[in-house]
Amino acid sequence: QTILEYSSQFVQDESHTRMTRSPGFAAILIGVLGLGIGANTAVFSVVNSILLHPTGIWQPDRLVVPRVKYAKLHLGAISLSPRDFGDLRQTRGVFSASTAISTSNLNYTGASFPVRLRAAAVTHQFFDVFGVKPRLGRSFYPEEDLPNRNGEAILSDGLWRRLFSADPAVIGRRALFNGESFEIVGVMPPEFQYPTTAELWMPLGLPPSQYSTGIRWDETLLVVARLSGDANFQQAATAINLLSGQVLASEYREIGPDGWGLFAVPFLTFNNAGVRSYLLILMVAVGLVLLIACSNMVGFMLARASHHSREYAVRVALGASRWHILGQSLAECSIISIGGGALGLMLGVAASHLLLVVSPPQFSQGLVLHTDVFVLGFTAGVSALAAILTGVAPGLYTCHVSSLHNHLTQRGASPSRQRLRSALLGAELALALTLLVGAGIFLRSLVLLQQVYPGYDPSGLLTAQLALPTERFKSGTSRAAFYREVLNRVRALPGVTDAAWVAGLPLTRLGGSGSFDIKGHPPLAGQPWPHGYQRYVTPGFLHVLRVPLRNGRFFTEADAEGSEPVCVIDDLLARQYWPDRDPVGEEIDAGGKKGRIIGVIGHVHQGDAGREDAKGEYLFPLYQQPVQDSGLAIRTAGDPLTLAAGLREAIRAVDPAQSTYAVRTMQSRVDESFAPRRLAVTLLAGFAVFAVALAALGIYGLIGFSVSQRRPEIGLRVALGASPNQVLRMVMAQGVRLAVVGTAAGLVASTVLARLVRSQVFQVEPLDPVTFAGMSAVLLAVVLLASYLPAHRAASIDPADALRHE
Asked: What is the pTM assigned to this prediction?
């Protein structure tokens, strides 16, 4: 009875004593598991803050974004017109509030020098939709969202601190934005940043007539609505589809649903469309890394259990419950998982903030990471899952009834344990190869994408942005005069070969788009209105950006106010809407902006050159229609950045109150456009290297353990005449077999992965032989190296010493 009680107590305390007796072993396991959990925690922190629970917005899953589509034009989702928004506001019972948003640039002229700001003009229910209140002051009143009544502004927390030194008395103060006086009525909390670029908010102030009788295809507004009561997204989608049908039935019966239509998108899906797929891919990648870490941990625990197999068998023979043995294994793994989880949480939090530092601005801007209950719950759940995955298999093998006799009689690890460890390592190699191939595919895609010609030459280009205030430049004539005078001064700078104004520089996302009519050629029944990007440029545009002229002529200085309205289209728009005739000489009307087509130029990609543009482009002369926001492109003979100071001086010489911002090279804009892909490739490559390192560690551990168990046998073989090379080949054969099996399984898994991510890569075939062969060679080389080290040690065994300790 005393022996049985002692045995039972020993089983309960063993997990603690084993950990204290083998601190190095425990530290290795905690470190490996902590790295795996840390990687998962870091990526989940970003996923949580972007895709699941963005900070500063109340119940973001209750928000809906209505969009417009032109199916036949392959325009899957664009903004709404004021009239669309007016119809949406009449939808009853589904939405509790809705808002329209339009962003723009303006200047703050209350400082010693003008400061460029990014503003969001919103309808008065904006803050109700997002469920947020100002930290100071109030939000907008309905009567302030009217023409000539929209003289109020609400500051972001960052702008409040930067321009007004976080002074609470700023409420009620008046400030000059674009030369106009605004009353500051509120300051938002720091966690609210929507749109992410906005530094202040002001009432949109559109005339009510635009919501009821405005032009349907003047699609310039981002609209967000909040679901009411118990309404769900499906009900909202149905209501918007019904509204779309009603509009078509009453106004545009000839267009049809394929020509135009409204539909709904969940806010979280819409807001993260650019990074969602990359984040999900990274989440899968770190999940695979964690599986490899757990597999390694299982292998180590099995190897360790082999040293104590007789001890476990004796305890079972003396009456200890096998459930106690299993419980001990789970307890040991739980202790390691708790330690790994704590370490992983610390590493994950640090890594997530480091990730924000190295991330491109378009990814990290406005992103606030918090270690909230969701992140803590995720880390705890992953740690618990790791404890179960790593504790069950060693425990079951330890207490299996059929192994009792073997435990008492055999030396070393049982064949079943060896097979299990080999299977686990084969799976590790397969997963590691899958990650390697995935990283290789995305790397090749990035390289090919960077070689695509975007339709212009970004080398030697300096760019800048400028927003003219309405109060100082009320007339188009004054704006055109400003643009001309600045160009004259800039062209006189040393090293400048030419310069041009471009309202909507490539990659700035500041240009607009819209539908237009072709005079004398109305859309056929069931066809949508023509649609394209709108740009406003000065005559030097083609030479500065090196865009080819395909047909006709381009703008000249004579195309100014008072002359015949003209326009130029690109060859993509020409192919879309004039496939069988020459467009030169025809006239278009884009919501009152008319022009006779005088030329056709090459297509300029406004965004990612790797994705085929669905929209062509039509350009108006900036001197005929002088807009307020414009960009300056300067072609230089040397380093473009050396002209930055001269550019600012030239603009101040024309008007000292103007603020020039985003002065940078065009090449840097192009490089920045690749930054999200480059970051994803870098992280994938890092995870793949880590996975391969874990797999190599597992191979090294397995073969090293096998060598230690077979030491007497190897000593006997050497004593009987086996050469060191024969021993080396014999031991390495085990690693080679694992490499072959793991590579074969990994190639199958990689094929599936490649097909799944096909839509996310550019011009890379799913079964890319170069990537598959190259990554397989890398994995095989690592496995051979990991196998060689213990094999070399085995080949150096002294037979006398090995047999003496048998």
From this structure: 0.76
